[in-house]
Specification:
heterodimer; A: about 110 residues; mainly beta; six-stranded mixed sheet; four-stranded antiparallel sheet; B: about 110 residues; Immunoglobulin-like; 11 strands; globular
Chain lengths: ~110, ~110
């Protein structure tokens, strides 16, 4: 069975600080990896995704993530956060079952 | 702009009442997921349909929850009888069973059982 672990449950940053959110997964086969964002009171929206090829993927709003296969990791990064990035961030993995499995989420608060 | 549509957006009901949540997946998608989101448990998969057939509902309490897809444009999640511990946000998502695809989420139904 596949599983996802997000190490940071709550992160508080000031505007312009750099962000890195950790995500590790467990699955022995080929995976598709995703980061979703959930703004307060809203639904989950896709930030970026990795299927194959270049392990460094760029998403919307200046976010990027790097797939490191040897570490089973897919960490999310942003060089300079904004107040509007305040949200919940979910890492997800899809393995052979085609069922997305989500991490517990990381709550990010950015102070202006 | 294709999107997953869920109704109602909010529901407040009394304990013991029946609750039905509806989802219209994106046209052409052949998989539908129901997730429940709570502070304590995060996102839990309740049920999964492929081509309208239920493939996995192991995450759903069988005694009170039921999920169906009467046709390709409608998925339902029913709770009977509802209990206060069912209070949560219920999300429907749809997608395609093939490589290189993601799940698209609806706006969710915020359920409060008092």
């Amino acid at each position: 069975a596949q599983s996802v672990s997000q190490h940071n449950h709550h992160v508080i940053l000031s505007e312009a600080a750099s962000l890195e959110l950790g995500c590790n997964y467990s699955y022995g086969g080929t995976v598709n990896l995703f980061w979703y964002v959930q703004y307060p009171g809203q639904h989950l929206q896709l930030l970026l995704k990795y299927f194959s090829g270049d392990p460094l993927v760029k998403g919307i709003k200046g976010f990027e993530a790097e797939f490191i296969k040897s570490k089973f990791s897919f960490n999310l990064r942003k060089p300079s956060v904004q107040w509007s990035d305040t949200a919940e961030y979910f890492c997800a993995v899809i393995g052979g079952s085609y069922i997305p499995t989500f991490g517990r989420g990381t709550s990010l608060i950015v102070h202006p | 702009d294709a999107r997953v549509t869920q109704t109602p957006r909010h529901k407040v009901t009394e304990m013991g009442q029946e609750v039905t949540m509806r989802c219209q997946p994106i046209l052409g998608h052949n998989t539908v997921f129901w997730y429940r989101q709570t502070m304590m448990q995060g996102l839990e998969l309740l049920a999964y349909f492929r081509n309208r057939a239920p493939l996995d509902d192991s995450g759903m309490p069988k005694d009170r929850f039921s999920a169906e897809m009467p046709d390709a444009t409608l998925a339902t999640l029913k709770i009977q009888p509802s209990e206060p511990r069912d209070s949560a946000v219920y999300f429907c998502a749809s997608g395609l069973v093939r490589e290189n695809t993601e799940a698209f989420f609806g706006q969710g139904t915020r359920l409060t059982v008092v």
